[in-house]
Design a protein that fits this description.
This protein is an alpha+beta fold. Helices cover 56% and strands 17% of the residues. Belongs to the ABC-4 integral membrane protein family.
Length: 414
């Protein structure tokens, strides 16, 4: 109970100091406010951007590998001359992996081309992405439909002229009418719509099916050369749920080397890309931004700490006779020490709360004013309060210690 009373009195003293010396106290708190505002703003923006990018990356699948010609991550000394002569993933690779891989849930061969136009009667949608894939596409990607269905086994094998369109494509072509069963024209061929992907909305990396069209691979063979590198051929492999990605990668690498007849010690002529490569780069990049936020905000907090120490020395000087009376009535040194420590912490929490309030205002401004969603996470609120408490403890210790060591007789006489 004594501790709670002590905390209550300390907060009362802090509010009294704020009320009696508003300008002086607000100027002292300005450094803490700016520092907390800077650090938490950087962390809030970074966390929001990081989560949006990670959500886009997660669409690729955490247990999915992509056999491609080029690696996703380049180093400073990137030997491009080695990669440029690599072969593109081919149907031969796909067929060899399909027959031999045991740890894969699904294996799919995919090609894609961009900036195509799709038409339905007098309506058309330009700039769509046309994807062609083997029948296992639904096993390697998480597909959701708002209308219709996926290709049947017969449609995939026979190369039927069918397609699945994105929600934005369906809106542009059919004006709200049911698109399933209607015939559209793409690359000079008439194709029947059998399904519509569920609307996903735009994301940070453009990983959305809203403006894509998917056709069976065997149908695409009659439209363009699916082995041509201009159509970005790749083999997508998703491992089984109870199998680790490392095991799937190890088996896939061995099978690809065998299919390409590479000798032991010979370098791979393919790349196995995975989402962890992107995630690690994101962690590295945003880690550097966080350090910059700490450095920039740290200087403001340092200045704010000196300001709090200064106002606490002034507060001790103003209340010297009160300290003397308290000690003459039996107050212990630790009581005086904690009293001023809690007052310094209370002042820093005020400054920190003001900084967090400004950050929250910025998030509301961007979310509702600029239609850019920014989230102030609870962990950043806790971090801001925690920094305020630590700065209050550090900046308030020496003034509080000097107050606790005052001689009661000399203090009353002052």
């Amino acid at each position: 109970m004594i501790i709670f009373r002590l905390i209550g009195e300390s907060f009362r003293f802090a509010f009294d100091a704020l009320r009696q010396n508003k300008l002086r106290t607000m100027l002292s708190l300005l450094g803490i406010t700016i520092g907390i505002f800077t650090i938490i703003t950087v962390f809030t923006a970074v966390d929001t951007l990081r989560d949006k990018l990670q959500a886009s990356v997660d669409k690729l699948g955490s247990n999915t590998l992509f056999v491609q010609k080029w690696p996703w991550i380049f180093s400073d000394n990137f030997p491009w001359w080695k990669y440029v002569n690599r072969p593109e993933p081919s149907l031969r690779d796909y067929n060899g992996l399909k027959d031999r891989l045991e740890l894969a849930r699904g294996i799919c061969f995919e090609v894609s081309t961009n900036n195509r136009t799709i038409k339905y009667r007098s309506n058309s949608v330009e700039g769509i992405g046309l994807n062609a894939a083997s029948q296992e596409y639904n096993l390697t990607w998480n597909l959701e439909f708002q209308d219709g269905r996926y290709f049947t086994e017969t449609e995939g094998r026979s190369g039927s002229p069918v397609c699945i369109v994105g929600a934005e494509v369906a809106d542009g072509l059919f004006d709200g009418t049911d698109p399933v069963g209607k015939q559209v024209k793409i690359m000079g061929r008439r194709v029947t719509v059998v399904g519509v992907f569920k609307r996903e909305g735009e994301d940070m990396m453009g990983m959305s099916q809203d403006k894509n069209v998917l056709i069976p691979l065997n149908f695409a063979k009659g439209i363009f050369d699916i082995n041509n590198q201009r159509y970005n051929p790749q083999v997508t492999v998703r491992g089984k749920e109870n199998v680790s990605l490392e095991d799937v990668e190890s088996e896939l690498k061995g099978m690809m080397r065998s299919i390409h007849r590479l000798q032991p010690g010979e370098e791979d002529d393919f790349s196995l890309n995975k989402t962890t490569m992107i995630s690690n780069q994101l962690d590295l990049m945003f880690g550097m931004v966080n350090v910059a936020g700490w450095v920039i905000g740290g200087f403001s907090i340092l200045v704010g700490g000196f300001g709090i120490a200064n106002i606490m020395f002034v507060s001790v000087k103003e209340r010297t006779n009160i300290i003397g009376i308290q000690k003459s009535l039996g107050a212990k040194n630790y009581f005086i020490l904690l009293q001023f420590m809690f007052e310094a912490i209370a002042l820093c929490i005020m400054g920190g709360a003001l900084g967090l309030g400004l950050v929250y205002g910025i998030t509301l401004l961007f979310t509702y004013g600029a239609d850019i969603e920014i989230i102030l996470y609870f962990k950043n609120i806790v971090l801001g309060i925690g920094i305020s408490v630590i700065i209050g403890m550090i900046s308030g210790f020496w003034p509080a210690f000097s107050a606790s060591r005052l001689d009661p007789v000399e203090a009353i006489r002052s």
